[in-house]
Amino acid sequence: MNAPRVLIVEDEAVIAMALEMFLEELGAQVVAISGNVQDALQKATSADFDLAFLDINLNGQKAHVLPGVLERRHKPFAFVTGYGEQGVLEAHADAPVVAKPFSRGDISAALEKLKSRLPASPPA
Q1: CATH no., domain 5-116
Q2: Does 101 sit behind a cis peptide bond, omega within 30 degrees of 0 on the bond before it?
Q3: Which residues, other chains included, contact 2 with Cβ-Cβ below 8 Å and sequence gap of 6+?
Q4: Helix axis angle, 104-116 relative to 13-25, nearest 10°?
Q5: Helix (H) and strand (E) counts for the chain?
Q6: Contact 19, 11 (CB under 8 A)
Q7: Measuring CA to CA, which residue among 102, 59, 61, 60 is closest to residue 78?
Q8: Residue 16, CA atoms < 13 Å, CB-side half-sphere
Q9: CA 86 to CA 80: how far, in whole Å?
Q10: First-to-last CA distance in the chain?
């Protein structure tokens, strides 16, 4: 499989940079980073990516609309949140949850789960 293309939705620049660094070290290609709900919604709707890592709270705004958009586009996603699993709506309880602060190993485990959920690519 080619490097999965990733959308990061995170409002804290330092956390977004750490997430991007870990993902790239793990062989993923970060193609878009968004720090607010409006921009994230636009990117989730139209950007070209394979999977996403989402914060739930973006500058005080809940990003609960994003998982539905991603599910309609068949884009697997993981939550990266300080709220832990308690912050995830029940409708999305099957999504991997990475608790902040996270380690490279946490991101690696979530990335592997998401890669296993990618639609099979057609034979070349």
Answers
A1: 3.40.50.2300
A2: yes
A3: none
A4: 60
A5: 4, 7
A6: no
A7: 102
A8: 19
A9: 12
A10: 12
According to the model, what pLDDT value does residue 40 have?
96
Q: Give domain limits for the chain.
A: 5-116
Q: What is the pLDDT along the chain (124 residues), one digit of tens a residue?
A: 589 999 999 999 999 999 999 999 999 999 999 999 999 999 999 999 999 999 988 998 988 889 999 999 999 999 998 876 666 767 777 899 999 999 999 999 999 999 999 987 655 5
Q: Which two tokens stand for residue 98?
A: 């990475």
The residue whose two tokens read 């990335």 is 111
pTM of the model: 0.92
User: Taking the CA of residue 30 as centre, how many other CA atoms within 13 Å lie in the half-sphere pointing to its CB?
Assistant: 18
Measured CA distances, 27 to 6, 55, 73, 82 (Å): 11, 21, 23, 25
Residue 57, both tokens: 């709270």
What angle (nearest 5°) sits at the alpha carbon of residue 108, between those of residues 55 and 60? Answer: 10
Q: What angle do CA 56, 98, 53 make, to 5 degrees?
A: 55
